[in-house]
């Protein structure tokens, strides 16, 4: 039996090979929530850090099954890319979310603060939601349906600011992803597809949740179908999508020795355009102050460390060069120290996506410029192809993405 939430490439590939034969029955089973989540892949922590790649999942799936028999599965795999592309073209939505989070936190009344803390600790008024809050804190994972129910309960029943709920998820989820998380919360709130909210309903819970998990479950009456009504929220006016940042899809030809930077937005340098490189040193950076700033849970930090250690070991063997894990106050500082020590004039990395790592890029570039070191950021060709398709809703996106994956 493979790991519950595989964090290394080896474990992720094992889980994937175990799950691949079941992908044709995914559509029928995926919405059912059971203990240990047997009907879904549980690959999101590995996919989010790119310990395993969507491209690999898509290729393997279509090598084994016909597209119509696994279309729902491939659609879900591509939802992550859709959200990523959508946010790459609207980076201001991430910035607005982070700003609103600070304001909403400051504006909470004492009563709201107490209620929010109780809900996060699994001590709110609805037992099944308490179960989800505790499961999230204990495992760093929730089934997709549970995420939808919980987010809807937070926003439309408790009427708490969606940004604080998104932050609760972001602090704990092993797969916490600036695009999938922020935009899914906006979607439940009715801000992503304007006017379309997702409402949690008792009948839906009873249909899809394993019966024994709902037995003796006080508070369900608060979720009766005709009881939950949408909270009407306002959001900044939408702007049209901008072309995503333009990154080369091929690694630069460097003649002097250079370094390879690994970060948790892409931990698979041995597959793709960076695989041909010959770096003289490889580094990843961890930063306790950054973890504290985002108030990341212990489980989430451990996940990062496991995934980074795995990527360093793999890439050290693949590229046959020394690796280092820098602990520093900031990523910029860690890269600066490493580049200075190794006398690097160039560093190559996959371009981070909109989110905390990309937010640090201006500071990283400034610090590296002090020692005349240049940062080269590369994007995978399939990301470039797919991201620009996320101009509007998912289904127009999928029409085009479907044609690409079946090429
Ligand atoms: C409120 C809310 C918050 C969410 N926050 C995150 C998050 O921070 N990070 C994250 O990766 N996903 C997030 N999701 C999406 C989804 O819930 C998870 O990707 C999925 O549950 C991961 O479990 P799995 O790997 O077992 O999924 P499976 O059902 O096995 O799906 C396989 C893969 O497809 C992708 N996928 C499936 N469903 C979705 C979806 N709805 N949106 C985007 N990608 C999807 C994921 O990469 C997933 O690993 C969120 C959804 C909601 C409703």
Summarize the structure.
By secondary structure, the protein is α/β, with parallel strands linked by helices. It contains 20 helices and 5 strands. It has 3 domains: 9-88 and 386-405, Serine Threonine Protein Phosphatase 5, Tetratricopeptide repeat (Alpha Horseshoe); 102-223, DNA Cyclobutane Dipyrimidine Photolyase, subunit A, domain 3 (Orthogonal Bundle); 259-378, Rossmann fold (3-Layer(aba) Sandwich).
Essential attributes:
Serine Threonine Protein Phosphatase 5, Tetratricopeptide repeat; DNA Cyclobutane Dipyrimidine Photolyase, subunit A, domain 3; Rossmann fold; 3 domains; binds flavin-adenine dinucleotide
Q: Which percent bin holds the helix content?
A: 40-55%
Bound molecules: flavin-adenine dinucleotide
Total number of helical segments? Answer: 20
Could you name the ranges where pLDDT drops below 50 across 5 or more consecutive residues?
Answer: none
- The end-to-end span amounts to 34 Å
- Order of helices and strands, N to C? HHHHHHHHHHHHHEEHHEHEHHEHH
| CATH architecture field of the largest domain | Orthogonal Bundle
Under CATH at level 1, the class of the largest domain stands as Mainly Alpha
Q: If you compute it from the alpha carbons, what radius of gyration comes out, rounded to the nearest whole angstrom?
A: 22 Å
- The CATH superfamily label of the largest domain reads DNA Cyclobutane Dipyrimidine Photolyase, subunit A, domain 3
Number of DSSP strand runs:
5
User: What do the pLDDT scores average to?
Assistant: 96
Assign the CATH topology of the largest domain.
DNA Cyclobutane Dipyrimidine Photolyase, subunit A, domain 3
Tally the structural domains. 3
Strand order of the largest sheet: 3-2-1-4-5
Largest sheet: 5 strands, parallel
> What sort of overall outline do the alpha carbons produce when their principal axes are compared?
globular
Beta-sheet strand percentage?
Answer: 5-15%
What structural category arises from helix and sheet content?
alpha/beta
Keywords: FAD, Flavoprotein
Organism: Prosthecobacter algae
InterPro entries: Crypto/Photolyase_FAD-like_sf, Cryptochr/Photolyase_FAD-bd, Cryptochrome/DNA_photolyase_1
Pfam family, one: FAD_binding_7
């Amino acid at each position: 039996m493979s790991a519950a939430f595989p964090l290394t490439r080896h474990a992720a590939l094992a889980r994937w090979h175990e799950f691949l034969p079941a992908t044709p029955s995914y559509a029928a089973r995926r919405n059912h929530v059971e203990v240990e989540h047997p009907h879904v892949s549980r690959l999101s922590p590995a996919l989010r850090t790119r310990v395993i790649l969507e491209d690999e999942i898509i290729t393997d799936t279509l090598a084994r099954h016909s597209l119509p028999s696994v279309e729902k599965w491939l659609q879900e795999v591509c939802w992550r890319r859709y959200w990523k592309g959508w946010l790459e073209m609207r980076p201001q939505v991430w910035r607005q979310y982070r700003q609103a989070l600070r304001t909403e936190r400051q504006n909470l009344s004492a009563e709201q603060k107490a209620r929010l803390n109780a809900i996060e600790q699994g001590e709110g008024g609805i037992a099944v939601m308490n179960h989800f809050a505790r499961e999230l804190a204990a495992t760093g994972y929730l089934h997709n349906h549970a995420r939808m129910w919980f987010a809807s309960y937070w926003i439309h029943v408790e009427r708490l600011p969606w940004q604080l709920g998104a932050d609760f998820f972001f602090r704990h989820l092993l797969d916490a992803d600036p695009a999938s998380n922020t935009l899914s919360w906006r979607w439940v709130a009715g801000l992503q597809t304007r006017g379309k909210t997702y409402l949690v309903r008792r009948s839906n819970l009873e249909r899809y949740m394993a019966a024994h998990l709902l037995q003796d479950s006080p508070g369900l009456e608060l979720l009766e179908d005709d009881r939950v009504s949408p909270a009407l929220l306002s959001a900044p006016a939408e702007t049209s999508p901008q072309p995503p940042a333009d990154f080369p899809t091929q690694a630069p030809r460097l003649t002097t020795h250079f370094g390879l930077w690994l970060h948790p937005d892409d931990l698979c340098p041995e597959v793709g355009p960076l695989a041909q490189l010959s770096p003289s040193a490889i580094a990843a950076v961890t930063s306790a102050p950054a973890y504290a700033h985002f108030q990341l849970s212990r489980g989430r930090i451990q996940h990062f460390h496991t995934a980074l250690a795995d990527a360093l070991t793999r890439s050290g063997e693949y590229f046959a060069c020394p690796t280092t894990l820098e602990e520093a106050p900031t990523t910029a500082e860690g890269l600066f120290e490493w580049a200075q020590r190794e006398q690097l004039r160039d560093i190559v990395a996959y371009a981070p996506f909109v989110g905390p790592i990309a937010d640090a890029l201006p500071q990283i570039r400034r610090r590296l410029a002090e020692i005349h070191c240049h940062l080269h950021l590369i994007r995978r060709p399939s990301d470039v192809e797919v991201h620009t398709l996320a101009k509007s809703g998912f289904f127009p996106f999928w029409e085009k993405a479907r044609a690409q994956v079946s090429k």
